[in-house]
Amino acid sequence: MASQRGQRSIRTLILLALSMAGCATSRFQTIELYVQQRNWQKARTSLEEFVRRYPRDGEAHLLLAEIYGETDRIPSMMRSLQTVRRLSPRYNKPAEILAKRYWVKNLDRGLKLFRQKDYRAAAERFGYAVQIDSSAVEGWQRLGDALFMTAHYRQAEKAYRQALALTPENPAIKNNLAETYFAERNYAKAIQLSDEILAANELDLNALMRRAYAYDALGRFQDAEAAFLRAAALNPDAKLLTDFGLLYFRREKYARAIELFQQALEVSDNPIVQLRYLGEANWRLRNYREMVRWYEKIVASYPEDLVGWKNLAVAYEALGQTDQLALARRHISRITSTN
Questions:
Q1: Is the pTM of this model over 0.85?
Q2: 243-293 pLDDT, tens per residue?
Q3: Going by C-beta distance under 8 Å and a sequence separation of 6 or more, which residues neighbour residue 240?
Q4: Which domains does the chain have, with CATH numbers?
């Protein structure tokens, strides 16, 4: 409510100044009515004609700038503010206030849209904000975030670079930019920037994890292994430990992969992921008893899991467990017939 009162009072002062300057002609009274009715299109058209006739009327330019701001014509708003600043230094402060108001307004709208996961609309609002004030770090950072979420990685990279130019040592923005490089599959740059972050803070988990994944993507096993070890020592969560296990799994180092999958299982909120990998890794080692152990856990929790029953059938057959094999085949037949 306070901001609405502020907007009304500023607009009232502008209209009063126009009136005192002798501009309260019938034409301008009509413009005032349009503004009060929030009929922005008619107000804009009339004011544009008014300032063409009275190009040195600063208050009219200020009001026109406000109308442009209300209708998201930000480049036009900024041109009007530049014009009014050139007319007289006394307009600098009201122009600054008006620009700040629409910067805040667009930033707030963008944040609301971002929380609602409407990232495209949020990016548009943050784009308006940086047009109004290109020296504000938050505008560029938020724009980068929204563009990243819409997979516009090149544009996100540019926004984060602009933010970093304003605050070169900001670790959050550096991490966001490094993540953008990773999303662009520019793994070398992602590693380089992550190394810069770690030089300032060796416990930065995001940078540690990103290095591990980037080295893995580049096929640099030893570097990836060392990076995963550092990250897992700091944050042994289920996803990281599982991905660490997959680093070994893909290189047929199944015993080490199994160790990590078991560690991940102990802290997992979704154990079926680790159970499947444990079953698969033991299958590759032809360790059928362990394979049975893990897949039986899966079908105990998910009786309709067709893959689980099929893999159990493979293990039962390899072990010569005919009764269990028959049971598995009955479940397979039942599931496939109902589907």
A1: no
A2: 999 999 999 999 999 999 999 999 999 999 999 999 999 999 999 999 999
A3: 209, 228, 231, 232
A4: 1-87 (1.25.40.10)
